[in-house]
Design goal:
about 325 residues; alpha/beta; TIM Barrel; 13 strands; globular
Length: about 325
Amino acid sequence: MSDFRFSFNVFGLPAPHEFDALCRRAERLGYDVLFAADHLGMPAPFPVLAAAARATERLRVGTLVLNSLFWNPALLARDAATTDVLTGGRLELGLGSGHMKWEFDEAGIAWQGFGDRADRLEETVTEVGRHFAADGFAQQAGMREAYGVPVLRPVQRAGFGGWGPPLIIGGTGDRVLRIAARHADTVSVAGAYQIKGRPPGTFRIGTAAEAAERVAFARSCAGDRAASLEWHALAQMVLVTDDRAGAAERVVERFGPAMTVEELLDTPYVLIGTVEEIAGQILRGRERFGFTHYTVHGPYLDAFGPVIEAVRRAEG
């Protein structure tokens, strides 16, 4: 089994000195990766990642995940390679197919059906990898020679066929998980499911049974690759409490009956209990689902810190 890794998502963007302090605190708490999302109204991902790496010593940085339809592959390859160089090879590049229709509308980008979005995701992976592997643009050969300008390439040779940073692909649908199984280094089995009959972007949290089935499906698609892949889950909520059942009841009362209390306590996408209970849930989740990389949302950064310590203490 792989070693555990832990990460968090940046939500808002405070003043520069406060952001630096946040990143350093995360590093002290034992987090391995800082992730930036790709949503309108939230910070632009790549500047955040470069700033986080400059503020820290070992913290890796990544995107969880970029909406591939928002990005031209050639420009994405340029931004990713630049960020990998500036962070000293600490980038992890996460890609997805996008799911918030309102964001497409606000950005003036045509909304496409799921199949078309999945196709675009795989095309983006292929094209970005091609740019990473290329020996620069022929049109710039003279300029490079005259001024000694190196070809812009990622530092890392971990993902994209050995030409770029590690690749994360996340989703729940069959097509995206097949793409992840073919190309990704980290398969993120998303815990948010579109509610049937509701507008795109209306979600519910997945159950433990759904997580197990989705991981099994992706593993079957990956074949011999499955054992070498990292399996990732994004926790939607972290509640440290001495009253696990009572807290779960209150969550169900607040958010409605999409899940029972029992299902909420069983899902890997919600972490409720004492520090030791949550640590135990994560340790059991490795055996049950294969998850060895957990991400929490930024507001739970401090609450989840002691859980990281407890898991690593249990691992010896």
